[in-house]
# Entry
Amino acid sequence: MTQLEVADSSDDLEGYLLPPEAYTSEEWFAREQRELFDRCWAFVAMADDVAAVGDYLAVQVGTHPIIVVRALDGRLRAFHNLCRHRGMVMLEGSGNVRSGISCLYHHWNYGLDGALRRVPQLDRFNGMDLGDWGLLPASLGESMGMVFVHPDPDAGPLGDWLGDFDERTGGFRPETLEEGVRVSYEFAAN
# Structure
């Protein structure tokens, strides 16, 4: 029997195929987010997508809203995209926030390093130490110009997770590619 004949036999593929609800069930989707994507590194951008100081990208990694931002020192950083005051998501999409990250709800302002810089009506917070209320960090790693994030600030090194990925790419160098066209498709699936 050839490999093509095996691939055509639905009996032989039964253990590899997912049931239809894997693509449409909200419960299945929620479980994948919690049990898979909340627990591993996720590719979110090319480093060139956040090249200038203040450039940011807001992404969803599993159940966690995350911000990737180019800080004043030129380094990429990742934080949970939630204001420490009331948990409001602060940024959407992409753009530039060189002047800092501000929550639209009560206007708490964070630096590109995640430090809380300003709280309106600070006197109402009974001796609050701004240094204790910075954005919660997420892990960030880069490989071949690709940016990966992990919701856990104590995730192991990206290189351990990638294993020998760099070697397996052969002569393919993702960091040298340029985006030509971006196409989006929407369809009824999770």
Notes: The helical segments are 3-8, 10-13, 21-24, 26-35, 158-162, 165-168. The CA atoms of residues 141 and 148 lie 5 Å apart. The longest strand covers residues 55-61. The radius of gyration is 21 Å.
